[in-house]
Design a protein that fits this description.
By secondary structure, this protein is mainly α. The protein has a domain at 1-54. It is 65% helix and 0% strand. It has 9 helices and no strands. α4 (57-70) runs antiparallel to α5 (75-87) and α5 packs parallel to α7. It is elongated. The chain starts with 6 loop residues before the first helix and ends in a 17-residue tail after the last helix.
Amino acid sequence: MLVLIPTRKHLDYAQGYLGLNLLAEAKAELVLIRAEDRNDPEVLALQLELAMASSTWARVITLARTLTKTRPADERPWVAWAYALREKQRITEARNVLLRGEPLIQRPSALVDYNLACYFALLDDLHEARRRLKRACIREPEWKTEALTDPDLAALKTPNPGHSTR
């Protein structure tokens, strides 16, 4: 007698393994999901998290692109897509993806502004980088500490042009 485990159980198991950083086990659970459920947005979202944890950037880009079409108001796929592009040194594309998603995201968080600050800084638009970082830190003050050591924001440590450093 063949017993099929429901997709929800596989997702729960995979999420648990992912939480424990047991990536191979999480992947094994996702493989067991029935073929007709593999394109379900919840399944794709967990595959996206696994791809992020595995640093498989091309897979992140593919999954995130798909999820932004089915769930445009969900922040996570937009941020993941942009981050994967950044990891592949495609900074302009990363910025453009996040800018395209920003108005669609239901409630953009400090994370969107923080990531955009990084991309603008890397692209040498320091005015916009500072503006975005300020907005992120107003929403989430703990980002100030993160920003101090983030290499993507290193250009912001130079004095602001036109302002005295005294």
